[in-house]
Amino acid sequence: MPKIKELEEVLADQIAAGEVVERPASVVKELVENAIDAKSTQIDIVVAEAGLKQIKVIDNGEGIPANEVELAFRRHSTSKITSRDDLFRIKTLGFRGEALPSIASVADVSLETKTADAVSGVLLHVKGGEQLEKKSSVRPQGTEIIVNDLFYNTPARLKYLKSLQTELAAISDIVNRLALSHNNIAISLTNNGRVLLQTVGNGDVQQTISAIYGVKNARQMIAFNGKDLDFKIRGYVSLPKLTRATKSYISLLLNGRYIKNFQLSNAIIRGYGSKLMVGRYPVAVVDMTLDPLLVDVNVHPTKQQVRISKEEQLAQLLTKSVYDRIAQENLIPDALKNL
Ligand code: ADP
Ligand code: MG
Questions:
Q1: Which of ligand 1's atoms lies nearest the C-alpha of 143?
Q2: Residues 101-113: pLDDT tens digits?
Q3: Are 237 and 204 in contact (CB under 8 A)?
Q4: Domains of the chain, start order
Q5: What's the ipTM?
């Protein structure tokens, strides 16, 4: 017998799942991103027990053609890129074709979907990577995916999870960021029947900020923008009196994709100069637009870390734009502000 053998497909999917599907929040992220890529205008996320029991994502997007649903669960199958060139101009959130097969290899997944021109929809049931059922279904256009019993066959992963409260906070965090980066989609999040977020999806960032941080806090945030030859930035930052004890209230969006980047978060904080108390950080939602050729999103499977050319230049632009805006605010005496 040869020593080197190709891995069985399900096993390979489970190994990929180790990177893509770390916790319930990663499943929520992947499913909602798929719904966004499908051009949905409404996405409802319903979880039970912080997603450990069930995660359901319902969208009204394009749906998947009935004869392609099995393919959606095959690794490296994607409708989003076809050539190497596409990889350098990615506009969709997904492109690796890894999420569905990875999730289905470590959970019990039912996907029901219908495209606009199909007469009926289709339901596919996959558990632990094995297809259990495929049948036609009656449903409106869009996709509904139900993930039950996440990590039922990978006990080590299950054991590694934090408390329900922590897992739910991670789900909230991801949904909030996706909502902030997609103000034109009505997004709701419900856990055990309790509504945690509901955005209106009318394209207004401020409305999304209100839905997430509350109306009172939203009023303490001011719009700012900045521009140079390579970058355009636009967003809201809190007045120095609205602060938080962590940097996690700074949401960064790059070409509509939310990212994590310490250098850029710190650049925003630096824009406040000495106006923040030690250990306090602003709330911010900042959208940065640049030529997709200047970003490499293919750095990590979850795509939250990206590589940006001219990052230092972008950081300086952020600091300067925030600084200028905050300075300008201070010139207006409080008494005149609400006139
Ligand atoms: P990727 O998003 O990287 O393409 P996924 O495994 O997440 O890979 O999804 C595989 C394919 O299934 C997608 O390319 C898309 O064609 C289809 N798909 C998944 N979810 C949806 C959805 N909610 N609506 C429409 N199509 C979907
Ligand atoms: Mg995807």
A1: 23
A2: 999 999 999 999 9
A3: no
A4: 9-198 (3.30.565.10), 220-333 (3.30.230.10)
A5: 0.98
